[in-house]
Amino acid sequence: MARRYKGHMNGERYLANIDSDHREVHDLDNEKTGSNQCQIDEVIAAGNDRPYNSLEAAKREGFDNCHWCIGDSTR
User: Fold this and answer.
1) Who's near 6: CB < 8 A, 6+ residues apart?
2) Does 4 map to a domain?
3) Does a structural domain hold residue 74?
């Protein structure tokens, strides 16, 4: 898909899902849009989006990789 300019996003590459059941970070430059994959629009609609300019910053705050768009998820 593409980077977003809605919700809390302002064109950043990485979006973290702050929902306590998910706590994962997505790469919007590699977003997977199939059924049960990244579901970025749903994360934003729920108000669970947190923007990051780097994957390292999101990882420092405890977010796991999205299985679909980044890989190497630890969950």
Assistant:
1) 44
2) no
3) no
Residues 16/50, Cβ–Cβ less than 8 Å: yes
Number of separate domains in the chain: 1
The closest alpha carbon to 54, from 45, 63, 46, belongs to 63
Domain residues for 33? 14-65
Report the distance separating Cα 57 and Cα 36, nearest Å. 26
Q: Going residue by residue through the chain (75 aa), what tens digit of pLDDT does each one get?
A: 789 999 999 999 999 999 999 999 999 999 999 888 999 999 999 999 999 999 999 999 999 999 999 998 987
State pTM to two decimals. Answer: 0.93
